[in-house]
Design brief:
Number of strands: 0
Number of helices: 19
Radius of gyration: 37 Å
Shape: rod-shaped
Oligomer: single chain
Helix content: over 70%
Strand content: under 5%
Length: 381
């Protein structure tokens, strides 16, 4: 007996059976045969639709119809069928609760199936297919955060940051216990230059966990990018209290102190970096530059008062200021020397070193430095 003959035989038996014992309509029984025996979902759908035209309030038929559409991965129509079933389910009838559980089970089963397919595609670098499956998960059940997160990861990997942020935020709305997710959203906002949005996002996080250091850092970075220096310094200082040895925070804080003219504060941060990384050439130069700037500021002030008729300083104070300036230039010299010894290719460093020697009264060394003839001592900071 070929397949078509076998199917007709089963349908004939069902037809006779339904007439003899007055059981469920023939169309519904036919749908069961096509689903349970043949897994022929097109025929299952065909007979269920015929049945529902006659019996439009059959909960079980809608559930089976939803399953059939799910097996065909037509999840929007699956949801429509389940929605119809739920419309006819009465909360007051205990017997109807099993229908709800059936729908929940089927949706979970299809969600897991689509999610696992998405993971497999992602692991094999089929990003478009992975994205489609995670979107299917959201169609099946839009109350589960995992699919939004995985979809966002894919979007981020293709630099679609706005969509990634949207899906991360939806995931957080569904699972607000994961505050680190919103911290990451703040980081993405900073990445795409939406600094005020980063601040707003971190404010939400910090309202729940005021000492979450990663959120504090992202807020500091946003203010830093916005060039709101005082606020950036405030939040870097807060972060530093929680992470006292974090080199990135130390560097950013030192950099902002430097740009604000707070050179001694900058030097303190930069020296803390050098304790753990003594050969960080950029930081070495910044320490030297900070000492150099302290000396330069004093020289500028002395020159301004010398040319002013209204502002005068005593000879004693002038002598003290000159001594202090010389000391700052002397402090700068070893850092510039070390940077040059480490082969830094920056003419500004050579120039500052020559000026530092000159201002410190070491004219001969200044001339040799300007000619690049000076041999540096072995002992450097």
């Amino acid at each position: 007996m070929n397949k078509n003959s076998q199917q007709l035989f089963y349908l004939f038996i069902l037809f006779c059976y339904s007439i003899l014992i007055n059981c469920r309509p023939f169309e519904f029984e036919a749908a069961l045969v096509y689903s349970n025996i043949y897994a022929d979902w097109d025929k299952t759908i065909e007979y269920l639709n015929k049945h529902l035209q006659k019996t439009p309030d059959d909960i079980e038929a809608y559930i089976l119809l939803g399953k059939a559409y799910g097996m065909k991965e037509d999840y929007p129509k699956m949801n429509q069928a389940f929605k119809k079933a739920l419309f006819f389910i009465s909360d007051s009838l205990a017997s109807h609760q099993v229908f709800k559980k059936d729908i929940e089970y089927l949706k979970d089963d299809f969600w897991c199936y689509a999610f696992n397919k998405g993971v497999d595609h992602f692991e094999n670098h089929r990003l478009a297919d992975a994205g489609m499956e995670f979107n299917n998960c959201i169609i099946i059940d839009d109350t589960r955060a995992e699919a939004y997160i995985n979809l966002a990861i894919i979007e981020e990997s293709i630099n679609d940051f706005n969509s990634a942020i949207e899906h991360y935020e939806k995931a957080y709305a569904l699972d607000s216990s994961d505050v680190n997710l919103m911290v990451y959203v703040g980081e993405l906002y900073n990445t795409i230059g939406s600094y005020q949005q980063a601040i707003n996002s971190m404010d939400k996080v910090l309202s729940r966990q005021p000492h979450l250091v990663d959120a504090i850092i992202q807020k500091a970075l946003a203010y830093d990018f916005l060039e709101k220096i005082d606020k950036a310094i405030l939040y870097y200082e807060k972060a530093l209290k929680l992470l006292p040895n974090n080199s990135d925070v130390l560097y950013n804080l030192g950099r902002l102190y430097y740009s604000s003219g707070k050179y001694m504060e900058a030097i303190a941060q930069f020296k803390n970096i050098l304790k753990n990384n003594p050969n960080d050439i950029e930081t070495i130069v910044l320490v030297g530059d900070s000492y150099f700037s302290l000396g330069e500021d004093i020289i500028i002030e002395l020159e301004a008062t010398a040319n002013s008729d209204s502002v005068k300083i005593s000879d004693m104070k002038q002598t003290e200021m000159q001594r202090q300036a010389k000391e700052y230039f002397l402090d700068a010299i070893p850092y510039f020397e070390k940077a040059i010894q480490m082969k830094i290719n920056d003419p500004d460093v050579w120039n500052m070193l020559a000026i530092a020697y000159s201002q410190a009264g070491l004219k001969e060394k200044a001339e040799k430095i300007s000619k690049k003839e000076y041999t540096f001592p072995a002992h450097l900071p």
